[in-house]
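Whiteboard transcription, Tuesday session. T.W. wrote the structure tokens on the left side:
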């Protein structure tokens, strides 16, 4: 699979919301494999369905010959990302966050291949570089590269500043700098050239691109995947019981399977593109088959089986 085909296929699947300098990125990918990363902050003791699309994007890139780096935010998880959050996040203790880091590392690992030669996956933790950094180094070496004028104009922050009842603390305001430095650090130490994340991360990603250019004089790229919504306008990944978690102790494989079985007809073929590795041709053929069968569509069962196996393995699927 050529890199150009990879970008085209991601677009055909509806998996690219925004990308910086697409033509230059395609040209760089055509030159050979790159390293890319996606960050996962430990804001709970498990990842949920909202994390699955970017996590699977890392896997899609690895299958195309590129090197994925999964970054767990042991430091940024202590701060909290304010992006499009209506209120200040609750700060968790360092012991709690470190415990969650280990759980998330174990959850991420099965999705990636760590024994694949030059494009073997890697796990990183940004506490490794921020844990030893003093405040003066942070302010002098990182803070001096950021304009407050530009930071307050980022849409994710502006929404909080425009509300009279809720402001934003300096702690959360500084989150943008931390994530930006992650990109610069991973670029310098692991050669990472592309960051992917949810579309709510666009402001943080572009800050990282700018800081990396200033620090390392390197051109790097950013790409976001869309935040998934359902056709009826309700939030994806939620049930009456709350979030759908990847941890089988928090959402059992049975409930996980049932969540996908209950997907609306209007969403199911789109979700097959987002959450499975079926080809576009296979998905289109299944849709045509369902349309002409005169019976209940097969697509929901195919979606439920494939995603449950992907997340919980054959054993979890059989225990549903």
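and on the right, the sequence the group agreed on:
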């Amino acid at each position: 699979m050529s890199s150009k085909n990879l970008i085209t296929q991601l677009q055909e699947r509806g998996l690219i919301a925004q990308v910086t300098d697409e033509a230059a990125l395609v040209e760089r990918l055509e030159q050979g494999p790159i390293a890319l990363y996606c960050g996962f902050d430990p804001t709970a003791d498990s990842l949920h369905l909202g994390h699955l699309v970017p996590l699977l994007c890392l896997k899609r890139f690895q299958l195309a010959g590129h090197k994925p780096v999964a970054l767990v935010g042991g430091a940024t998880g202590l701060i909290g990302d304010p992006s499009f959050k209506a209120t200040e996040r609750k700060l968790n203790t360092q012991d709690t966050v470190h415990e969650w880091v280990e759980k998330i590392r174990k959850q991420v690992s099965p999705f990636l291949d760590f024994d694949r030669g030059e494009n073997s996956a890697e796990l990183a933790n940004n506490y490794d570089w921020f844990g030893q950094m003093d405040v003066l180094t942070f302010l002098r070496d990182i803070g001096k590269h950021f304009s407050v004028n530009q930071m307050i104009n980022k849409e994710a922050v502006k929404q909080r500043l425009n509300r009279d009842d809720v402001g934003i603390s300096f702690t959360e305001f500084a989150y943008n700098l931390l994530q930006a430095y992650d990109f610069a650090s991973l670029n310098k130490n692991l050669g990472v050239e592309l960051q992917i994340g949810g579309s709510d991360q666009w402001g943080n990603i572009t800050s990282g691109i700018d800081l990396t250019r200033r620090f390392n004089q390197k051109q790097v790229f950013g790409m976001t995947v869309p935040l998934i919504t359902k056709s009826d306008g309700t939030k994806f990944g939620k049930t009456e019981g709350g979030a759908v978690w990847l941890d089988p102790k928090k959402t059992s494989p049975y409930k996980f399977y049932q969540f996908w079985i209950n997907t609306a007809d209007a969403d199911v073929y789109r979700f097959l593109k987002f959450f499975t590795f079926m080809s576009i041709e296979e998905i289109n053929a299944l849709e045509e088959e369902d349309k002409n069968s005169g019976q209940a569509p097969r697509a929901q069962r195919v979606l439920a089986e494939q995603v449950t196996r992907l997340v919980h393995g054959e054993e979890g699927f059989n225990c549903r």
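Someone added at the bottom: The mean pLDDT is 92.
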